[in-house]
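#lab-general

N.A. 3:47 PM
ok so I finally got the sequence cleaned up, no stray characters, all 567 residues accounted for. can someone with queue access submit it? mine expired

B.Y. 3:52 PM
send it over

N.A. 3:53 PM
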Amino acid sequence: MRPRITATALAAALTAPVCGVQGASSIAFQNPEYSKSAPTKQNGVSWPSLDTEKSTYVYVHTSDEIAQPTEFFFGSNVPVYVAGDFFNTDDMSTKMATAGQSFLRYPGGSSANKLLWDADYDSYPYFSGYSWMTADSKYSMEDFVVTINNTGATPLVELNAALSLVYGSDVGADYFIQMHEQLLAYGCDVAYYAFGNENYGGWEPPYGDYPVNGTLYGEAFLVAAKALKKAYPKIQIGFVGEYDYTSVADDSITPASAPAAASSQTSGPRRGASQPNLGVVIDDWMEDILAVDGAADAADFVVIHEYYFKTTSSVPTNVELLEEVGQLSDMRDGVADFFAEVVPEATVPPIILSEFNLVQLASAGCGATLQFINTIWHAEILGEAIQGGDVAALMSFSWADAAENCSNTGRGTRGDYGLVSYGSDTIEDGTPTTQFYAYALFNLAFGDSMVNSTISQGTSTKIKTYASTFSDGSVGIVIVNEDSAAHTMRFDGLTTGAITANGWVVASSDPDAEDPLSADGVTWNGETPDTFPLETSYTPYSASASEGEVLEVDVPAYSVTGIVVYY
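B.Y. 4:20 PM
back already:
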């Protein structure tokens, strides 16, 4: 068992500097003080001219703010099961900074319902089978605090909801307070806690060993929320929810048997309750939580997970995968519908999508996680999430996870959820995967205020633009081109005076392939990126326009482009 904080040490910790950005708003995942300056302007190389047959005209309304991005959209998971010395190196800190990682979740995924941070297996023997998680070689809570300090990110910590369900709500609440106080001793005053992880599913402890249903979970959540907020009022806590009632039929699914200890359940994958393809989902989960008197009011946010493509019976096309971005509005509407049905008088809290990726590794789309399509998809998820306001925070799964062999190789033989590789037979640990570059581009070319941009001519559903302004008055634009053809982009509304622009283009590593979106790598301004940070390691493209002119640049087929306009 690891030592716990003493009363004297706690008193000192409460007056010491703390890690992370805390208490910026009484509403979860809002930060009215969020500010971001544009990257330093460089003397770049001339923007490449391409052989284009299509032109797209975009008007950027720089004074028409439509959304406020915050640090909470640029997050990921840092799992306990990764080696303890993996995250806290200079190289990894540089890569996290390159990808703008500003919101980190620990212990990451299902580990939450298994981990005893203090290794007290004598008091809680049910969890002794997971004692490997507290081995010295693993990523400990103290290591997590070091990562938070290295990156300046805001922390979110998952609580072990299974402990409350096994040993009682009061026991769990006391344990969580001790956990928070130990974090204080490490110098980290955590504001955001999530109660468990996917406890609606049969893959999460203690399902099958102890009774689990929405009512029991909701009651335990309420006790934990009240206790933590009484002891430390600025803590904000959320429960694990769903956004859809409906089971999705899949003829490739073998129904899982239901342990007698559980309540009712549904077999097979269900949107709004992300789970392995073979699994049990407890029925009426969301309704039963909200029916617990006081649970809805105690929730500062609702946790949703979604691994978008889950089907095992057919290999997804590029079109099918890129269409999945539209589910963000379903999440907000679905959660609101549950509240309206069960607790119509309650305010619907913000939603955090704290685990997501393009496909589930157990699906027929497994290999797409490592393909260039995941760069384009993640860029669209970031842009659409900020623009639509359906979710208040995003945390990709995961910063690092573990490479797996795909059971269905229709989109490749290997899959990996990580933004950087880990445990691969063929790729060095810590190597950025394709999705990493979507975050790196947004980190450079997206500011602190999202503004309206409209395509006025050359309308194409395959071109998406996400425009923003920085605190210093510069303008940032991210352009996603899903088209098989290059486009000349003409931007109006920018030239109140002469302007110059820096730009970065992420494209497929195999643009001449029959399917460039299936390539397993990217180019960054025409080069294979292997040195970080990208901003200072690779020369940006440059373009300019005089007063009254449009800014004109070419973007390749199947690409994501970032532009920063300087005045």
